[in-house]
Predict the 3D structure of the following.
Amino acid sequence: MSVISQTEFQRRRARRKWLGRAFHGLCLLSVAIALGMLAVLLIYLLIQGTTRIDWSFLTSFASRHPDQAGIKAAMLGSIYVVIVAGVVSFILGVATALYLEEYAARSKFARIAKINIANLAGVPSIVYGILGLQIFVHSLNLGQSVLAGGFTLALLVLPIVIVAAGEAVRAVPPSFREGSYALGATRWQVTWHIVIPLAFPGILTGVILAVSRAIGETAPLIAMGALTFVPFAPDSPLSRFTVLPIQIFNWTSRPQAGFQEAAAAGIIVLLVILLLMNAGAVILRNHFQNKWE
Amino acid sequence: MQDQDFILQTRGLNVYYDTKRVITDVNLDVARNRITAIIGPSGCGKSTLLRCFNRMNDLIPTARVEGQVLFDGLDLYGHDVDPTEIRYLIGMVFQRPNPFPKSIFDNVAFGPRINGFHGDINELVERSIRRAALWDEVKDRLKASALSLSGGQQQRLCIARALAVEPRVILMDEPCSALDPIATLAIEELMRELSEDYSIIIVTHNMQQAARVSHYTAFLMVEETRAGFMVEFGESRQIFTNPEDERTEAYITGRFG
């Protein structure tokens, strides 16, 4: 009486089970490939680079001699530039997201702006470098400085921050907004006391992503004229600078084996800085997230 | 009744979303220090009507209001009226309890603080929570998250939050629809107590509730040709025992809606 005969059902069931196992296997294979490549990269770096990492590597400047070359200028340059980029993109990005989601939420302008901002995230990074060279270095006369580099990277990661902050702001339940409007709150008070605190963890996630992207960028900074050989630490926002990825790129293009080791060591330092920054942001995020739940 | 007995009155009130009319020509008089219930089938515009009284419809960009809503004779939709001031004088409790993800204390203190209260905030918070019949349950954990309370407690906290700015009117939009019967009874009891000092308008799906707690009842309906019009308005006793309109009778006896 059943719609499918017993033998047909058994045959089909075996086939369905086989398909399920095959898909499971495929997913596992993808994980293995992705993690495997990362593991190979990390092991290779650790083998080549660990011996070069010591205090003098962190505190010495670039040098013609591979065994004396250090990373101080690039490390400080990276940290300063990323801090400028992070702060500027955070302020501009959050304010933009709040305007588009809270103030102009349903307007045609906001819709068009949001589509274009999402597309901006796909513009090649070197274009931002050229833009930064023209606007910050020449027009605003900041020179090829830490500030100009930070601003350029801020422009580059701004779409990431805006999109992430916008999603975080949209995720704040409308019932909380209504509840505070109904008590006589102005739009500013609703935004400041309700929306921003609730969206903050999500906004921080966006900033983490943005900073991680910024710290690894090379092309836009080369385009705007960051140096490749810097025997001094940047001592002011208008000081010239280099960053870790440029230093690493510079070393890998040298023939001496010693520079290859320095490059590997430099990548390890870059990864550690990245991990520390992300860990800091995650701790901050969790601090805000779990308070009232 | 004379004019001064009414705290809120609508005159020729029409509400549109874009070009669609959702409230049609409503003239409703809300008595001071009484409970007025608005009943009617789903989609008849009960909540929209309620949200005209504190201009919450302003938050919906496509909403447009025609006619007058008089608050002690002052037109709430007049040119120089600030909606935030209206909402300070006319509080609201929502369908689902919506305490802020803050402490119990901060929830109640929120309204006074944003409106620039400079007195004894501890005393005001305690008085408001007591007034909402919640004090004994939360007095030892005012610093705890408001979200740790049960649904019924959360709704009473929202009432305390609304009371803390000492409004003249409290609007309640199906305040018990997300609560169990015991919590519902507690809220109804509370409403009766509050009606000694406040004017209350309640939107409800629950006709027994309207009959139990309200002094006056307005019955709204929606038809194919017009939406959100008032069929009948009068004392609840009369509406629920001896309605004048046969459509009201059909609705309260459960024949539709």
Remarks:
- The first strand of chain B starts at residue 6 and ends at 17.
- The mean pLDDT of chain B is 92.
- Residues 181-194 of chain B form the longest helix (14 residues).
- The interface with chain A takes residues 54, 56, 59, 61, 84-85, 87-88, 91-92, 94, 96, 98-103, 110-111, 114-115, 145-147, 158, 161-162, 165 of chain B (CB under 8 Å).
